């Protein structure tokens, strides 16, 4: 390479050649980075939080991972075609701001051998700090040792219908393509700027480019999150372990996950589980609307509604019970988020902003006076007529007896009658365990429920009489005491649907009938048809 070309390559990487006026501006990229941190040491529970970041565009690169022209999985191709136009908008915006755009369709470098963007990657000056294993796949970083990988991808993750897949293989073969690796180039929706962009699938080349350009921040988008986006030599793990500030655009990615594999949830829940894993142990994530405005991207087939679980009680360990329950069976039909209390301030539900996007609020809270703005989010959800499901201590969720809320905090003393039509006045002795009996009525919440009576491990709540507009689905009885309603529905004054049960002891979650009833209650409250039930233990 001549010294003239070497200088031109270096100047291009530094942003002095072929760059529009806007790229020289100093306005930072304003991003909201979502990450997860444990609620307390070794709790195994995580707050979902955000922090603001302001990145210098000239110190930032976006890497488009394996956005191939075709794939061995036809469903993967269909999903890629959905995100590609949105990703192109993101690329155009970032490029105009001065961000370095790196196209990385792995295994396709021969196609681009004569492309200036490819030559630019090859000709970049060798970095003096080249990481030792930057050209290798990275299958795990030390931080991930603290977690359990959330999905089984041992079958390769292809989720195609078998008949469709057989036809797809024949189609690829007829075109002279290898069915397992049919790609040859990047999808043509993503445009490559010959005067400015980079084309490479080499960890060494990409590192050289980034160091020459002074890149400190890396944005990853593309496919597939659980494989290439995480593990490639230019993937998230390598970027993080070698000191770059890395983020994933979580709404412009996809996984290779087959819902027939564990944990046997929706394909899109499988992607969410990988994103959660990344946010816990690898790096934060962002969404495309932070760059180009509008709303987050959502796949056309992703019809899951959003269930937000508020969990803040210490008596019944529902944080553990609900976490196990939320993956199976809720992960088949719903997107589930958790909000937990802060370890230092039990009245602070950290990350409660997610309530604003909830389709259904699931409450397992005991006697907390929330920060005023947090309780307002709960009130706004209910005032909008959205559904609520509550278990056990939800009847006295936001009412602390004989104590006024501290400044900046608020309570809702009538939450039980207002939201559940209930009348909680206390409970019988902890050793008086009730016999649980399901009502002999036809109701969607009791569909497919094993109605065998059982003894609950929790004391019997005093809740009679209930308000008008309630329908009792379950009762509890202890010898010598009057029977009490244990579960009921309620149509609120705002028109919204509520379901409440005073059950919720860990032993209740061992009962198939209780678990199916909860799943049905969520579906009923959301006015969704009942799905096939999974009654295995959580």
Structure in words:
With 538 residues, the chain is an alpha/beta fold. The chain has two domains: 27-292, Isochorismatase-like (Rossmann fold), CATH 3.40.50; 305-525, Class I glutamine amidotransferase (GATase) domain (Rossmann fold), CATH 3.40.50.880. 26% of the residues lie in helices and 21% in strands. The protein has 13 helices and 22 strands. It has helices at residues 3-13, 74-96, 116-123, 162-174, 203-213, 225-231, 236-241, 267-281, 289-292, 318-327, 372-383, 415-420, 512-525; strands at residues 29-38, 46-55, 60-65, 100-104, 198-199, 217-223, 245-254, 285-286, 305-312, 334-341, 349-350, 360-365, 370-371, 388-391, 409-410, 426-427, 435-438, 454-455, 461-462, 470-477, 484-491, 497-501. Strands 11-10-9-12-14-22-21-20-17-18 form a ten-stranded mixed beta sheet, sandwiched between helices. Strands 5-4-3-6-7-8 form a six-stranded parallel beta sheet. A two-stranded antiparallel ribbon has the order 1-2. The longest helix is centred in the N-terminal third of the chain and has 23 residues, at 74-96. The model is unreliable at 16-24 and 534-538 (pLDDT under 50).
């Amino acid at each position: 390479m001549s010294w003239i070309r070497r200088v031109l390559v270096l100047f291009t990487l530094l942003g002095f050649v072929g760059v529009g006026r806007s790229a020289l501006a100093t306005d930072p990229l304003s991003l909201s980075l979502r990450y997860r941190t444990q609620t307390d040491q070794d709790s195994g529970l995580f707050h979902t939080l955000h922090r603001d970041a302001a990145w210098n565009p000239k110190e930032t690169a976006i890497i488009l991972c394996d956005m191939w022209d075709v794939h061995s999985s036809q469903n993967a191709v269909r999903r890629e075609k959905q995100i590609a136009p949105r990703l192109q908008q993101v690329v155009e915006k970032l490029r105009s701001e001065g961000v370095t755009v790196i196209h990385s369709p792995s295994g396709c470098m021969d196609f681009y051998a004569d492309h200036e963007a490819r030559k630019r990657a090859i000709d970049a000056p060798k970095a003096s700090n080249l990481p030792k294993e930057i050209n290798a796949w990275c299958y795990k970083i030390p931080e991930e040792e603290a977690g359990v990988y959330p999905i089984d991808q041992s079958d390769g993750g292809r989720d195609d219908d078998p008949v469709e897949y057989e036809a797809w293989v024949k189609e690829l073969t007829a075109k002279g393509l290898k069915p397992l690796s049919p790609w040859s180039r990047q999808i043509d929706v993503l445009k490559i700027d010959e005067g400015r962009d980079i084309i490479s699938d080499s960890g060494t080349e990409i590192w050289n480019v980034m160091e020459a350009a002074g890149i400190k921040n890396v944005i990853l988008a593309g496919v597939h999150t659980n494989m290439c986006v995480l593990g490639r030599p230019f993937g998230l793990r390598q970027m993080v372990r070698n000191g770059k500030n890395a983020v994933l655009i979580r709404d412009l990615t996809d996984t290779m996950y087959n819902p027939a594999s564990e944990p046997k949830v929706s394909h899109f829940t499988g992607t969410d589980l990988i994103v959660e894993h990344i946010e816990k142990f690898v790096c934060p994530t962002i969404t495309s609307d932070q760059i180009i405005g509008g709303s987050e991207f959502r796949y056309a087939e992703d019809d899951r509604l959003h269930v937000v679980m508020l969990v803040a009680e210490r008596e019944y360990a529902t944080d553990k019970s609900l976490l196990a329950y939320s993956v199976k069976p809720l992960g088949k039909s719903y997107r589930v988020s958790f909000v937990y209390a802060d370890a230092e301030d039990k009245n602070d539900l950290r990350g409660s902003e997610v309530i604003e996007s909830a389709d259904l609020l699931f409450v397992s809270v005991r006697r907390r006076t929330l920060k005023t703005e947090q309780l307002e989010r709960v009130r706004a959800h209910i005032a909008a007529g959205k559904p609520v499901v509550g278990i056990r201590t939800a009847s006295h969720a936001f009412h602390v007896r004989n104590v006024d809320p501290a400044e900046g905090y608020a309570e809702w003393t009538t939450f039980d009658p207002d939201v559940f039509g209930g009348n909680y006045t206390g409970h019988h002795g902890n050793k008086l365990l009730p016999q649980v009996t399901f009502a002999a009525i036809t109701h969607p919440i009791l569909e497919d429920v094993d109605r065998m009576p059982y003894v609950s491990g929790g004391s019997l709540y005093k809740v009679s009489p209930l308000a008008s507009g309630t329908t009792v689905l379950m009762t509890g009885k202890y010898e010598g005491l009057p029977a009490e309603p244990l579960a009921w529905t309620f149509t609120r004054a705002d028109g919204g649907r509520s379901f409440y049960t005073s059950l919720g002891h860990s032993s209740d979650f061992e009962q198939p009938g209780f678990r199916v009833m909860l799943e049905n209650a969520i579906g009923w409250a959301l006015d969704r048809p009942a799905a096939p039930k999974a009654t295995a233990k959580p």
